Structure formats: C-alpha cells, structure tokens
C-alpha cells in the first residue's frame, strides 16, 4: 500500500500542467496533515514537478527531460529576475526557446520574435502586444507595467507578461547566467542516470533464509544483495563471506551487515564513486527521500559512467575547467606544467587564490599519475603549504614527482615555482582505480 507521501506525489504528478496547488488544498483534498503535504510538495519541487513563485504560488510544471535541462520555464525566469507576473499566469509552466532584447524599431524587432521566445523590452506597449500575438512571452524591464489590453491578451493566450525592476542589460546577464548554470548541471552524471531499478535487479528480505541467497547466487552469479523489509526499507547488505558455513535455514537478517551506506537518485556519480573507493564497497543500494529501496548501482556502472563523462565535450565551464585549461606542458621542465595567472584566478588582493593553487597542484598530480597508470584517480588526502603569494599575470611552473605508485595507491610530491623560487608545495595521497 502506498504511503501518504507517495499518495501526494502521485496526485501532484497527475495534475494538469499549469494547475495551481497549495499545502492547504492538498491536505484538504487527500485528508492529510498540512505538515505531510508541505514535505511532499517540497519533494515534488526537487523532482521538477512543481515550481514555487513568490506572489504567485506553486504551480505544476512540465517535467524536464535531462537533454533539455538548459531550457528555462517562465516560472523560473520570474524567480531569477525577482519579477512580478502582470498577466498570463496560466502559461508560467511553459519553457522558453530563447530570449530577444527589444532595443530596435518595432518592425525590425519583430523579425527576431517567434513563438516560444521571451522578449525583454521596456515600456513599449505596442511591442508587448505584437510579441504576444507572435506567441512570445514578455519581460518588461525598469519596473514598468503595461496596458489593460495587453494584460487581457496575455491571459487569453496564456503567455506570461512579467515586470522586473532591473534594467535590460542586467536581466539578460542574469538569464544567461542561469542558462549557463543549467548547461553545467546537464553535464553532471547522477545516480538516477545509471542505476538498475528495483524491478530489474535482485534483493533479499529480512525474513528470507540463507537458502534463498544460495538460490539467487546460482541464478545470477552475483554474491551481494541488499536486504529490505516489507515496506521496502533497506536494513542491510549480505555477501558471500556473510553466509559461508552458515546453516541454510538461518535468517538473512541475522547474518547481514546492518545499516549499509546508501545513495539517492540525485547523488552525483562522482560522489558515489568516492564512497565506493573510500569504503571498499562494490554495490550501493539506491533509496528515495523516504529511504525506500529503488534499485542498485555497482562499482562497474559508476566507473563506466565516469569514463563516458570524461569523453563528452564540455559545454558549460566550471571554475576548475577554466583553471585547468590554462595548464600546458612545460617545454623547459621534464614532466612539468606552465600556467598563466589570469584575473579570474586571483583574489581581491590580486594574488592567486589558495583554492586555485590547490586545483593546480591537484591537477598536476593527476596528470602525472595518468602518464604512468591508466584508470581513474580519486584524491584521498592533500597537504599543501602556501609559501609565497603570486600576483596576477605571472607565469608559474608546476613540477609533480611520483614518490610511490602501487596497484591501488599513489603518492605524489608537487612543487610550484615562480621565477625559479618555490611558492607552494603539496603532498597528494590518492587511490587508483583500474
């Protein structure tokens, strides 16, 4: 039987896109407490089922596919620009294809405005009307409003017309930044993208016996299984070493390893990989927000996903991408790297930031290890000494030296120089995964 939490999520998912919901409405409709309703609505927001907009409320939105995550809904635009919805609330769930800045004559401007666009414009009532008639939403900058005729048209066409106090340039930068952030998120592989769902995998119940483990072992060839109860809550993990020499009629609950480490579907694959390496785990149960079993993710799945992600072209650059892209192999130093200190890499004093220095020495150590051993490198520990400040526009040299390298572990000494003087020194301890 579905829990109250599941009932609410199912109810929300079946609502038509654009429907308005509230804690009180959900609680009254399903005869549940407002606290339960509130928690479920927050979970629905995390899953991308609804969006909450200040001064408007919470509305059901179209669930985004991962390949279209860079598209924003008009509801998200309202939150980004701290806007006020003047009309067309029924269309807030729709996604925008692109935004157009209306800084030219009307006839010229309308050549660029199409259905699904967002026109960013000032107090030009004719422009507002023409954009809506073309199927585009309107974002009015400078805190201006619009005419009653335009508001009526927006309501009729279900196309939002939004007002913000920011100027056009600031608004465009804010929306562009949000889209860029979405592109970075698009590249992050989550457990949700790779895990094996409950109906496609095998597991044991706390009431099963060791005989059941042996049956599954012969059927699947696997030796590790999650142990769950009748409510799908994960209670433990059982492996071959737990059942060796144990009578067949012994309950699994008595031999399993209790309280196993779990991940949820929103955990990044990189985080799951780190947990697996750090704890020496081959299999992780995947659970939902209520800690119910959803499936499993194996170390093999995680490594394959990480290798695939490394081969993908990057669209949105993170700070680490920007910093490490400046590193080039030094022609003067054997197994060394050179890097220009750009303005983005400095702090408010104009010297290279400690975070950037840490990224540079870490990346140098990784690259050196990859030259000697193929596979993934997981940083286990780093000790770094910041000896001298390095100012903007300097060229630094980074020289890593492998102290130890084994089948599973490595140790690297990294030194950073500016004009032949040492400015930082670090010791990296890593785990190596084939």
Automatic annotation (TrEMBL):
Spell out the protein name for this chain: CBS domain-containing protein
Highest taxon in the source lineage: Bacteria
Which species expresses this protein natively?
Answer: Alkalihalobacillus trypoxylicola
Answer whether the UniProt record assigns the keyword Cell wall biogenesis/degradation to this protein: no
Q: Which residue ranges does the record assign to the CBS domain? A: 256-318
Task: List UniProt keywords, sorted A-Z.
Answer: CBS domain
């Amino acid at each position: 039987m579905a829990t109250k939490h599941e009932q609410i999520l199912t109810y929300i998912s079946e609502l038509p896109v654009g429907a308005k919901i509230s804690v009180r409405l959900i609680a009254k409709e399903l005869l549940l407490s407002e606290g339960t309703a509130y928690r479920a609505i927050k979970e629905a927001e995390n899953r991308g089922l609804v969006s909450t907009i200040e001064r408007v409320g919470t509305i059901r939105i179209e669930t985004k596919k991962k390949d279209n995550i860079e598209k924003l809904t008009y509801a998200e635009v309202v939150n980004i620009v701290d806007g006020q919805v003047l009309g067309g609330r029924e269309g807030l769930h729709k996604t925008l294809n692109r935004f157009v800045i209306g800084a030219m004559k009307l006839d010229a401007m309308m050549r660029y405005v199409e259905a699904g666009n967002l026109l960013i414009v000032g107090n030009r009532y004719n422009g507002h009307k023409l954009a809506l008639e073309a199927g585009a939403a309107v974002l009015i900058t400078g805190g201006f409003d619009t005419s009653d005729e335009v508001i009526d048209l927006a309501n009729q066409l279900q196309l939002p017309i939004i007002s913000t106090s920011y100027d056009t340039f600031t608004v465009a930068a804010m929306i562009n930044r949000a889209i860029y952030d979405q592109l970075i998120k698009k590249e992050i592989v989550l457990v949700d993208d790779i895990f094996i769902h409950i109906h496609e995998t095998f597991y044991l119940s706390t009431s099963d016996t060791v005989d059941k483990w042996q049956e599954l072992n012969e059927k699947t060839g696997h030796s590790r299984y999650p142990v769950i109860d009748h409510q799908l809550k994960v209670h433990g993990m059982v492996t071959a070493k737990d059942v060796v020499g144990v009578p067949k009629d012994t309950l699994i609950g008595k031999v399993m390893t209790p309280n196993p480490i779990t991940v949820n579907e929103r955990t990044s694959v990189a985080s799951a990989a780190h947990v697996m390496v750090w704890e020496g785990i081959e299999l992780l149960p995947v659970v939902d927000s209520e800690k119910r079993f959803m499936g499993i993710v194996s170390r093999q799945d995680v490594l394959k996903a990480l290798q695939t992600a490394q081969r993908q072209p990057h669209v949105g650059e993170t700070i680490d991408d920007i910093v490490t892209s400046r590193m080039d192999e030094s022609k003067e130093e054997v197994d060394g790297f050179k890097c220009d200190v750009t303005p983005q890499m400095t702090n408010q004093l104009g010297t290279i930031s400690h975070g950037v220095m840490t990224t540079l020495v870490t990346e140098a150590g990784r690259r050196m290890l990859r030259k000697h051993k193929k596979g993934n490198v997981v940083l286990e520990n780093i000790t770094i000494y910041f000896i001298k400040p390095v100012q903007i526009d300097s060229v630094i040299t980074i020289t890593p030296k492998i102290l130890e390298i084994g089948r599973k572990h490595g140790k690297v000494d990294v030194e950073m120089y500016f004009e032949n003087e040492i400015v930082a020194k670090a010791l990296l301890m890593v785990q190596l995964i084939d």
